[in-house]
Protein backbone atom coordinates (compact mmCIF):
# COMPACT_ATOMS: atom_id res chain seq x y z
CA UNK A 1 0.00 0.00 0.00
CA UNK A 2 1.10 3.55 -0.69
CA UNK A 3 0.89 5.90 2.27
CA UNK A 4 1.30 9.68 2.32
CA UNK A 5 0.92 10.54 6.01
CA UNK A 6 2.74 7.62 7.58
CA UNK A 7 5.78 5.45 6.90
CA UNK A 8 5.54 1.70 7.40
CA UNK A 9 8.06 -1.11 7.04
CA UNK A 10 8.87 -4.49 8.56
CA UNK A 11 12.42 -5.56 9.34
CA UNK A 12 13.50 -8.64 11.27
CA UNK A 13 9.95 -9.24 12.56
CA UNK A 14 9.63 -5.66 13.87
CA UNK A 15 7.07 -3.37 12.22
CA UNK A 16 8.21 0.25 12.21
CA UNK A 17 5.46 2.83 11.92
CA UNK A 18 6.18 6.55 11.74
CA UNK A 19 3.66 9.39 11.86
CA UNK A 20 4.87 11.47 8.92
CA UNK A 21 3.29 14.92 8.93
CA UNK A 22 6.19 16.78 10.55
CA UNK A 23 5.13 20.07 8.97
CA UNK A 24 1.84 19.74 10.92
CA UNK A 25 3.52 18.34 14.04
CA UNK A 26 1.98 14.97 13.12
CA UNK A 27 -1.52 16.25 13.86
CA UNK A 28 -4.26 13.68 13.28
CA UNK A 29 -6.68 14.24 10.42
CA UNK A 30 -8.90 11.91 8.42
CA UNK A 31 -6.10 10.90 6.06
CA UNK A 32 -3.56 9.86 8.68
CA UNK A 33 -6.21 8.16 10.83
CA UNK A 34 -7.40 6.15 7.83
CA UNK A 35 -3.85 5.08 7.02
CA UNK A 36 -3.17 4.09 10.62
CA UNK A 37 -6.35 2.02 10.75
CA UNK A 38 -5.33 0.31 7.49
CA UNK A 39 -1.91 -0.62 8.87
CA UNK A 40 -3.38 -1.91 12.12
CA UNK A 41 -5.75 -4.04 10.05
CA UNK A 42 -2.83 -5.46 8.06
CA UNK A 43 -0.91 -6.25 11.24
CA UNK A 44 -3.93 -7.99 12.72
CA UNK A 45 -3.84 -10.45 9.81
CA UNK A 46 -0.69 -12.08 11.15
CA UNK A 47 1.94 -10.54 8.91
CA UNK A 48 5.51 -11.59 9.66
CA UNK A 49 5.79 -8.81 12.24
CA UNK A 50 5.81 -9.80 15.92
CA UNK A 51 6.23 -6.32 17.42
CA UNK A 52 5.13 -2.81 16.43
CA UNK A 53 7.25 0.26 17.18
CA UNK A 54 5.40 3.57 16.80
CA UNK A 55 7.24 6.89 16.46
CA UNK A 56 6.76 10.37 15.00
CA UNK A 57 8.87 12.10 12.37
CA UNK A 58 10.14 15.59 13.15
CA UNK A 59 10.43 17.32 16.47
CA UNK A 60 7.02 16.39 17.91
CA UNK A 61 5.45 12.95 18.32
CA UNK A 62 1.88 14.20 17.88
CA UNK A 63 0.18 17.56 18.45
CA UNK A 64 -3.23 15.91 18.71
CA UNK A 65 -6.23 16.32 16.44
CA UNK A 66 -5.68 18.60 13.47
CA UNK A 67 -7.46 21.78 14.53
CA UNK A 68 -8.22 22.61 10.90
CA UNK A 69 -10.35 19.46 10.90
CA UNK A 70 -11.92 20.16 14.30
CA UNK A 71 -12.89 23.70 13.34
CA UNK A 72 -14.45 22.67 10.03
CA UNK A 73 -18.12 22.09 10.83
CA UNK A 74 -19.63 24.04 7.94
CA UNK A 75 -22.37 22.03 6.29
CA UNK A 76 -21.69 18.99 8.46
CA UNK A 77 -24.47 17.21 10.32
CA UNK A 78 -24.24 15.58 13.74
CA UNK A 79 -23.79 12.26 11.97
CA UNK A 80 -20.96 13.65 9.84
CA UNK A 81 -19.12 14.89 12.93
CA UNK A 82 -19.75 11.62 14.72
CA UNK A 83 -18.30 9.72 11.75
CA UNK A 84 -15.14 11.83 12.01
CA UNK A 85 -14.95 11.16 15.74
CA UNK A 86 -15.39 7.44 15.08
CA UNK A 87 -12.16 7.46 13.06
CA UNK A 88 -10.30 8.61 16.19
CA UNK A 89 -11.93 6.01 18.42
CA UNK A 90 -11.42 3.19 15.93
CA UNK A 91 -7.76 4.15 15.44
CA UNK A 92 -7.03 4.01 19.17
CA UNK A 93 -9.12 0.88 19.64
CA UNK A 94 -7.43 -0.93 16.74
CA UNK A 95 -4.02 -0.11 18.18
CA UNK A 96 -5.10 -1.22 21.65
CA UNK A 97 -6.37 -4.57 20.32
CA UNK A 98 -3.40 -5.43 18.09
CA UNK A 99 -2.40 -9.07 18.68
CA UNK A 100 1.25 -8.10 19.22
CA UNK A 101 3.20 -5.92 21.65
CA UNK A 102 3.20 -2.21 20.77
CA UNK A 103 6.12 0.03 21.75
CA UNK A 104 5.58 3.77 21.47
CA UNK A 105 8.32 6.38 21.64
CA UNK A 106 6.70 9.73 22.45
CA UNK A 107 9.24 12.50 22.00
CA UNK A 108 9.12 16.24 22.67
CA UNK A 109 5.38 16.86 22.91
CA UNK A 110 2.13 14.90 22.91
CA UNK A 111 -1.18 16.72 23.18
CA UNK A 112 -4.89 15.93 22.97
CA UNK A 113 -5.69 13.09 20.62
CA UNK A 114 -2.03 12.14 20.37
CA UNK A 115 -2.28 10.80 23.91
CA UNK A 116 -4.78 8.26 22.59
CA UNK A 117 -1.96 6.60 20.64
CA UNK A 118 0.23 6.63 23.75
CA UNK A 119 -2.45 5.25 26.06
CA UNK A 120 -3.34 2.43 23.65
CA UNK A 121 0.28 1.21 23.45
CA UNK A 122 1.74 -1.54 25.64
CA UNK A 123 5.17 -0.02 26.37
CA UNK A 124 5.63 3.75 26.29
CA UNK A 125 9.03 5.43 26.24
CA UNK A 126 9.59 9.17 26.54
CA UNK A 127 12.24 11.62 27.63
CA UNK A 128 11.96 13.48 30.93
CA UNK A 129 11.26 16.78 29.17
CA UNK A 130 8.52 15.48 26.85
CA UNK A 131 5.36 17.53 27.43
CA UNK A 132 1.92 15.93 27.70
CA UNK A 133 -1.42 17.70 28.01
CA UNK A 134 -5.11 17.25 27.37
CA UNK A 135 -5.57 20.54 25.55
CA UNK A 136 -9.20 19.98 24.53
CA UNK A 137 -11.02 21.85 27.32
CA UNK A 138 -8.94 24.96 26.62
CA UNK A 139 -10.44 24.94 23.12
CA UNK A 140 -14.00 24.27 24.20
CA UNK A 141 -13.70 20.61 23.20
CA UNK A 142 -13.84 17.31 25.12
CA UNK A 143 -11.16 14.54 25.22
CA UNK A 144 -13.91 12.03 24.57
CA UNK A 145 -12.45 9.40 22.25
CA UNK A 146 -9.13 9.18 24.12
CA UNK A 147 -10.81 8.93 27.54
CA UNK A 148 -11.50 5.15 27.64
CA UNK A 149 -7.86 4.37 26.87
CA UNK A 150 -6.40 7.00 29.18
CA UNK A 151 -8.59 5.91 32.10
CA UNK A 152 -7.34 2.33 31.68
CA UNK A 153 -3.75 3.56 31.89
CA UNK A 154 -3.92 6.35 34.47
CA UNK A 155 -6.99 5.50 36.51
CA UNK A 156 -10.18 7.50 36.71
CA UNK A 157 -9.31 10.26 39.15
CA UNK A 158 -5.88 11.06 37.73
CA UNK A 159 -7.35 11.18 34.24
CA UNK A 160 -10.12 13.44 35.53
CA UNK A 161 -7.67 15.87 37.13
CA UNK A 162 -5.52 16.29 34.04
CA UNK A 163 -8.41 16.33 31.58
CA UNK A 164 -10.50 18.99 33.29
CA UNK A 165 -7.55 21.18 34.25
CA UNK A 166 -5.61 20.93 31.00
CA UNK A 167 -2.50 20.91 33.20
CA UNK A 168 0.70 20.03 31.38
CA UNK A 169 2.97 17.29 32.70
CA UNK A 170 6.50 16.33 31.74
CA UNK A 171 7.76 12.81 31.09
CA UNK A 172 8.72 12.23 34.71
CA UNK A 173 5.26 13.20 35.94
CA UNK A 174 3.64 11.15 33.16
CA UNK A 175 5.67 8.18 34.42
CA UNK A 176 4.45 8.75 37.97
CA UNK A 177 0.78 8.60 36.89
CA UNK A 178 1.25 5.57 34.62
CA UNK A 179 0.93 7.22 31.22
CA UNK A 180 4.62 6.52 30.46
CA UNK A 181 6.45 3.29 31.32
CA UNK A 182 10.11 4.19 30.69
CA UNK A 183 11.82 7.58 30.92
CA UNK A 184 14.99 7.61 28.82
CA UNK A 185 17.54 10.09 27.55
CA UNK A 186 17.03 10.99 23.91
CA UNK A 187 20.41 9.62 22.85
CA UNK A 188 19.61 6.30 24.54
CA UNK A 189 16.04 5.88 23.28
CA UNK A 190 16.77 3.70 20.26
CA UNK A 191 19.05 1.39 22.25
CA UNK A 192 16.40 1.02 24.98
CA UNK A 193 13.69 0.29 22.41
CA UNK A 194 15.94 -2.30 20.75
CA UNK A 195 16.56 -3.88 24.15
CA UNK A 196 12.81 -4.16 24.72
CA UNK A 197 12.18 -5.66 21.27
CA UNK A 198 14.93 -8.21 21.97
CA UNK A 199 13.30 -9.15 25.27
CA UNK A 200 9.90 -9.56 23.62
CA UNK A 201 11.35 -11.72 20.84
CA UNK A 202 12.54 -14.23 23.43
CA UNK A 203 8.92 -15.19 24.11
CA UNK A 204 6.74 -17.51 22.03
CA UNK A 205 4.87 -15.28 19.55
CA UNK A 206 1.65 -17.30 19.66
CA UNK A 207 1.59 -17.29 23.44
CA UNK A 208 2.23 -13.52 23.52
CA UNK A 209 -0.61 -12.91 21.08
CA UNK A 210 -3.01 -15.15 23.00
CA UNK A 211 -2.02 -13.54 26.31
CA UNK A 212 -2.60 -10.03 25.00
CA UNK A 213 -5.97 -10.99 23.51
CA UNK A 214 -6.98 -12.61 26.80
CA UNK A 215 -6.08 -9.47 28.78
CA UNK A 216 -7.88 -7.21 26.32
CA UNK A 217 -10.98 -9.41 26.54
CA UNK A 218 -10.88 -9.36 30.34
CA UNK A 219 -10.50 -5.59 30.47
CA UNK A 220 -13.32 -5.09 27.99
CA UNK A 221 -15.94 -7.23 29.68
CA UNK A 222 -17.86 -4.04 30.50
CA UNK A 223 -16.88 -2.03 27.42
CA UNK A 224 -19.66 -2.10 24.88
CA UNK A 225 -20.69 -0.56 21.59
CA UNK A 226 -22.59 1.94 23.71
CA UNK A 227 -19.27 3.36 24.98
CA UNK A 228 -18.08 3.90 21.41
CA UNK A 229 -21.36 5.62 20.61
CA UNK A 230 -21.26 7.74 23.77
CA UNK A 231 -17.74 9.06 23.24
CA UNK A 232 -18.21 9.90 19.57
CA UNK A 233 -21.55 11.60 20.22
CA UNK A 234 -19.98 13.75 22.93
CA UNK A 235 -17.12 15.09 20.79
CA UNK A 236 -19.48 15.69 17.86
CA UNK A 237 -21.74 17.73 20.16
CA UNK A 238 -18.76 19.61 21.60
CA UNK A 239 -17.52 20.59 18.14
CA UNK A 240 -20.89 22.19 17.40
CA UNK A 241 -20.89 24.19 20.64
CA UNK A 242 -20.37 27.94 20.96
CA UNK A 243 -17.41 27.25 23.22
CA UNK A 244 -15.62 25.19 20.59
CA UNK A 245 -16.21 27.87 17.96
CA UNK A 246 -14.85 30.48 20.32
CA UNK A 247 -11.91 28.37 21.48
CA UNK A 248 -10.80 27.37 17.99
CA UNK A 249 -11.28 30.88 16.62
CA UNK A 250 -9.17 32.22 19.48
CA UNK A 251 -6.47 29.66 18.74
CA UNK A 252 -6.29 30.44 15.03
CA UNK A 253 -6.36 34.20 15.67
CA UNK A 254 -3.84 34.07 18.51
CA UNK A 255 -6.15 35.69 21.05
CA UNK A 256 -7.53 34.83 24.47
CA UNK A 257 -10.89 32.98 24.47
CA UNK A 258 -13.72 34.87 26.11
CA UNK A 259 -13.97 32.53 29.10
CA UNK A 260 -10.38 32.98 30.22
CA UNK A 261 -9.62 35.45 32.99
CA UNK A 262 -8.01 38.62 31.68
CA UNK A 263 -5.50 40.45 33.82
Give your account of this protein's structure.
With 263 residues, the protein is of the alpha/beta class. It has a domain at 6-186: 2-enoyl-CoA Hydratase, Chain A, domain 1 (Alpha-Beta Complex), CATH 3.90.226. Helices cover 47% and strands 14% of the residues. The strands form two sheets. The chain has a six-stranded mixed beta sheet, sandwiched between helices. Strands 5-7-8 form a three-stranded mixed beta sheet. Helix 1 runs parallel beside helix 3 and helix 3 crosses helix 10. The radius of gyration is 18 Å and the shape is globular. It starts with 5 loop residues before the first strand and ends in an 11-residue tail after the last helix. 42% of the residues are buried. The model has no long low-confidence stretch (mean pLDDT 92).
Mind sketching the topology for me?
Layout: E1 6-11, E2 14-19, H1 30-44, E3 51-56, H2 67-71, H3 78-96, E4 102-106, E5 109-111, H4 114-119, E6 123-126, E7 131-133, H5 147-154, H6 156-165, E8 169-170, H7 171-176, E9 182-183, H8 189-201, H9 205-219, H10 225-239, H11 242-252
Parallel strand pairs: 2-3, 3-4, 4-6, 5-7, 6-9
Antiparallel strand pairs: 1-2, 7-8
Helix pairs in contact: 1-3, 3-10, 5-6
Strand content: 5-15%
Uncertain residue ranges: none
For the biggest sheet, the summary is: 6 strands, mixed
- In one word, what is the shape? globular
Give the radius of gyration: 18 Å
Q: Can you tell me the CATH topology of the domain at 6-186?
A: 2-enoyl-CoA Hydratase, Chain A, domain 1
Features:
alpha/beta, 2-enoyl-CoA Hydratase, Chain A, domain 1, six-stranded mixed sheet, 11 helices
Amino acid sequence: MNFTSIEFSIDDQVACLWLNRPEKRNALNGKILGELISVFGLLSKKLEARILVLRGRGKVFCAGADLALMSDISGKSDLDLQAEATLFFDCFDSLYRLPMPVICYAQSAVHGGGIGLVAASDFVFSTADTRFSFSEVGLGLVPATVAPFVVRRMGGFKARQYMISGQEMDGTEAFSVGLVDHVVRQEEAEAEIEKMTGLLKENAPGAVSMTKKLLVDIENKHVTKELRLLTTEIIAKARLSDEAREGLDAFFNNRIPNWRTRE
